[in-house]
Amino acid sequence: MESTQSTKTPTSWLSATNDVELVQRCRSGDSIAWRKLYDRYSPSVYRFTAALGVPFEEREDAAQDIFIAVYRSLRHFRGEAQLSTWIYRIAARHAIRMGRRRRTREMMRTLLSKETLPPVVDPREQSTHVATLDKMLAKLPAKKRTVLVLFEIEGLSAKEISDVVGCPENTVWSRLHHARSELTKVARRMAP
Amino acid sequence: MMWLQSPQDETEELLRNALDQAKERTGDEITHRRVWARVASPELAETRPKAPGMAKLFWACASLAALVGGGFWAYSTFRAPESIAIQPPSVPAIAKQPLDLSPPLDLVETERVPGQVVQSGAGEKMRVALGGGAEAELFENSAVSWDRHRRPMIKKGKARLSVPHQPPGWRFSVSAGPYLITVVGTKFDVDMMSRTVRVAVTEGIVEVGRGSSAIRLHAGDSWEGPLPSATGTTTVASVTPPPSPARSKVIPQEGLAAAHSALDTGDTQRAIAMLAQLSKGEGPTAENAAYDLARVTRDFLHRPRQAIQLWEKYRRRFPSGVLRKEADLSIVETLVKMDIHQAALTETEAFLARYPNSERRTEMLETAARLRATLAASAAGN
């Protein structure tokens, strides 16, 4: 995750506090530090959950749940991994869980012959390649998709990804290789 | 070397472009402000309603059975009480309600202890305080009670609920039969009929949930769901989905995104026209649009004075709005940039008095000190 502010949320009071200090201050109930942490990581959390398939209308709720989970788990953060890696881990788990629930819900609706409501699409994404990419990524298995998103979109190294997903570095490379190859195949199939 | 750095064909080029665009998808400012309003006090925040353990187990078993067996047995099993899905909202019902011109009723305050029941008699109406500033108007032969979490429950009859905007991170919940209705700040009716529960939203957004299913109702929507004693009847099937043209009227959240989209494409005037239109509506979308209208006026039209007037208008209309604090801060920031020191100081002091525990307190104290120094220097110069 970038350690600089990438949206237009108020920045004038932000300083270059490092993550370890930020966590310590958050733990002691410092609300300024908590705001800093939020401002620093909320754009990445939004981008990451979107790329993992959280639909437009659920992204705010997902971000809310992830940041509450982050706050409640801060006392368990030992600083062995980077804060960004740790937040990615929480976000990935949450996004995958939401995806599972969503699929179950859709399946139940289909079984019960209920009309499925069409997904709400961010109009800004409609005319871009991102909407197409989301459809292609949806065809990949969750593990491969997570690795590909972390590497290609979030720009993490294989070592950092192995910390996020909890597997050896070699497995990361292998999943990445397969994910790239499958994504290219899907893209060729879906290409107009 | 980066993957697809030198695309071999159109497909690879599309993929490269898509990946690059995905890197820019970081959410807009208002999204981050709204989420912040909900996580600013995470120690107080409730996570969104989640399925209890048994319900989760049930859904897992039900899904497995459906996959393996399929057919009629699974179908009929899933129609059992626990699995009844939340139906799409029906639209609209509220507008037809007659205007109530009767004098306001006295507010009944109770201790709200678990198990306590407040009941209205035949031909009687009551106004009952539910806690957290919320109140219910009980129609005749209606009853409200409180569960062990001191959460209000509509026991029978019909109630019109009015819930003020909750502090960041807080949500107000009321149960009606097996359904949990969760709101941030709104007005809505709950009608416990003999076989069904009906929820009709007048203002704001309401979430009706049961187990892991939930549906969002916007202003103007109404929804009906069966009570356990009536499950398995044809009531469920009788609820019809909303006609599609009405949907754009009741979910203006999409309109807000469309306004941002117009802004992104450089069509500022269109974005402003859309925001102005949305801000005239009701509920959270109108609130977001009213705030954003001022921001766009300042940042894109470069009219800071007009922006301040719009934020002031926002404050008058949504005195306890989710973005109230952001509006106060935006006014201070704008006044400081315009070098209107006295007004900026007044606003800064008002902010400090209003939000003594704000995470921006230190910064605002520094701002106030700087403004005082500037004002003193200019007074000495004169």
Task: Write a structural description.
Chain A is an all-alpha fold. Chain A contains nine helices and no strands. In chain A, α8 (158-165) crosses α9. In chain A, 39% of the residues are buried. The model of chain A is unreliable at 2-15 (pLDDT under 50). Chain B has 382 residues and is of the alpha+beta class. Chain B has 13 helices and 13 strands. In chain B, β7 and β8 form a beta hairpin. Chain B starts with 9 loop residues before the first helix and ends with a helix. Chains A and B meet through α2, α3, α4, α5 and α6 of A and α1, α2, α3, α4 and α7 of B.
Fraction of residues in H or I helices of chain A: 55-70%
- Largest interface, C-beta closer than 8 angstroms, per-chain residues: A-B, 64 and 63 residues
Oligomeric state as shown:
heterodimer
Q: pLDDT under 50 segments of chain B (min length 5)?
A: 80-85, 89-100, 230-253
Intertermini distance of chain A: 34 Å
Biggest β-sheet description of chain A: none
The total of helices of chain A stands at 9
Cα radius of gyration of chain B in angstroms: 25 Å
Helix-strand makeup class of chain B? alpha+beta
Please report the total strand number of chain B as a whole number: 13
Overall average residue pLDDT of chain A:
83
Output the structural class of chain A.
Answer: mainly alpha
Beta-strand portion of chain A reads under 5%
Rg over C-alpha atoms of chain A, rounded to the nearest angstrom:
18 Å
